[in-house]
Amino acid sequence: MASFVPEVGAELPPLAIDPISRTTLALFAGASGDHNPIHIDLDVARSAGLDDVFAHGMLSMAYLARLLTNVVPQQQLRSFQVRFAAITPVHGRPTCTGTVASINEVDGERQATLDLQVSLPDGTVTLLGSAVVALD
């Protein structure tokens, strides 16, 4: 696990993702059961007015979950929510980031609330989210 100092304003070590390939999209479709052709069929994407296929929103959410579990064990995750903001194009290079927004005690447990996002190199934010994690 990456080192993480849980204090307000602290940033989680960013998670840079390799470019999203067509293979990644096909494999994720099979693993997730989401076979929506807009994610894997160029003709369908073009018929919808798009230049190309794009990543599943849940794939971006999975990458963001990996960011979390890189710094805290999964059993310390108390909540996780996201809002999809923009598409991630095929060949996009998402980066997942997070910042500690607050630290509170809830029912005797010290918890950190994290602000999360996934963005592309051009600054486009594709996913916004938050999570609450229990601290050691």
Automatic annotation (TrEMBL):
Family label = Belongs to the enoyl-CoA hydratase/isomerase family.
Please indicate which superkingdom the organism of origin belongs to.
Answer: Bacteria
InterPro entries hit by this protein: HotDog_dom_sf (IPR029069), MaoC-like_dom (IPR002539)
Species for this entry? Mycobacterium conspicuum
Which taxonomic lineage is given here? Bacteria, Bacillati, Actinomycetota, Actinomycetes, Mycobacteriales
Mind telling me what this protein is named?
MaoC family dehydratase
One Pfam family this sequence matches = MaoC_dehydratas
